[in-house]
Amino acid sequence: MLSYQLHHGLDMARADPLGNPSLLEAGERPLERPTAEPGDVKNAIVTREGQYRLMTLSEYSRPGRVTYQAQGQAPPQVKVSLVSLGEQGDRLCFNHGREVYVYEYKGIHKAPDLNSPLMNNKGSNRIYPTCHDFNGLSSKGDNLTVLVGYSDGQIKLIDIDPTKKEEQTKGLNQERLIDKTKVTCVRWVPGSRSLFLAAHASGQMYVYNESLPCGTTAPHFQPFKVGENFTVSTSKTKSTRNPLFRWCLGNGAAINDLAFSPSGTQLAVVTQDGLLRVFQYDTMELLGVARSYFGGLLCVAWSGDGRLIAVGGEDDLVTVYSNEQKRVIARAQGHRSWVGAVAFDWYLEGEACYRIGSVGHDTQLCLWELPEDNLVPPRPRVKRRSDPLQLVGTPACPRLDECPILEPLICKKIAHERLTCLIFRPECFITACQDGYVYTWSRPSSRTPT
């Protein structure tokens, strides 16, 4: 049975220069303390279902394994994208330095051929890739479609045909007339072959149709929908051009991550001002809001049933938000630095609890369990006079003594550099760290999901 503790050790009054909204980009600020203590890096993790093991032969990295050193700037965060092609297997994309690589992903079964990437797309000296996403609908057989965002605001749509060893590239926002800031996240709209979202460090995100051109002049926008602390605008053009819509969130704090719900109907967005916003995507309605304990939120993930959303960020916590009850229902404490990625293990759901994983800048992997008991609404408290300026002590941001604090099932150091990605798969999970390595961990053989 999972144990809980009400934690009072965090000092709510401690100085935090990141507590105010910031336009600085996530992952490019110095840490206030060392990321991790010296110690052995673990290659096996034991949980109640058995042992997870690092598959050393299933390690992906850039050819030659030469570590990229950014000159005069923070290195770009390593991110990983996956797409399943059915009988053709899976494909894996990751960025490191100025380059984006696509490999055939062989999971726990075979070692990759690092000298034969399906794609190796390079940026320039001052422009580097920051995010990417496969289009699962248009990627068929050996043909792949991958979207890549760059540090200067450009977006590239790359069609890959490995049999012909050809790449067809289409550029969007090439003249940087739409947005000049870093692209922080790109996501294809679920169920669409042509629509995608691109989020920027400016606090704005745009809806593109990859089959349409961009204008030759800076777009002019007119209001389309105004909501609580957000606006949606459309372009003033005689002919339809990109972008189709512009979303402006809050006061301009950078958008750090976004994720569609499993049903594809809702959108969760986290920003540098510490806010999680949940939208009904098609109607552009704001459904709910949650707030970090302090600092920016860096990552977001949905549970497999769409009932819960987990976020992590600069408060070193994983916060769990109930999409049904519109409130924070738990916080998970165990990391000693920023949480870089969070994910639900969909393949272990349905056993009266949810499994959540997170990795952080402290080089640690943490696993948590959230029982169904936490989903029961609490007894109503005596109502106090509402204060519109109150930030802590509300359903969107309860005090630490007002919601359960989850203790980690395990919390292990698994890398030498900060961890940036966590993806759960049916027979394994995948992690990535800042030095450009992508690792595969096999699930316990006695408990491999089917």
Automatic annotation (TrEMBL):
<keyword id="KW-0853">WD repeat</keyword>
<dbReference type="InterPro" id="IPR036322">
    <property type="entry name" value="WD40_repeat_dom_sf"/>
</dbReference>
<dbReference type="InterPro" id="IPR051362">
    <property type="entry name" value="WD_repeat_creC_regulators"/>
</dbReference>
<dbReference type="Pfam" id="PF00400">
    <property type="entry name" value="WD40"/>
</dbReference>
<dbReference type="InterPro" id="IPR015943">
    <property type="entry name" value="WD40/YVTN_repeat-like_dom_sf"/>
</dbReference>
<keyword id="KW-0677">Repeat</keyword>
<dbReference type="InterPro" id="IPR001680">
    <property type="entry name" value="WD40_rpt"/>
</dbReference>
<protein>
    <submittedName>
        <fullName>WD repeat-containing protein 20</fullName>
    </submittedName>
</protein>
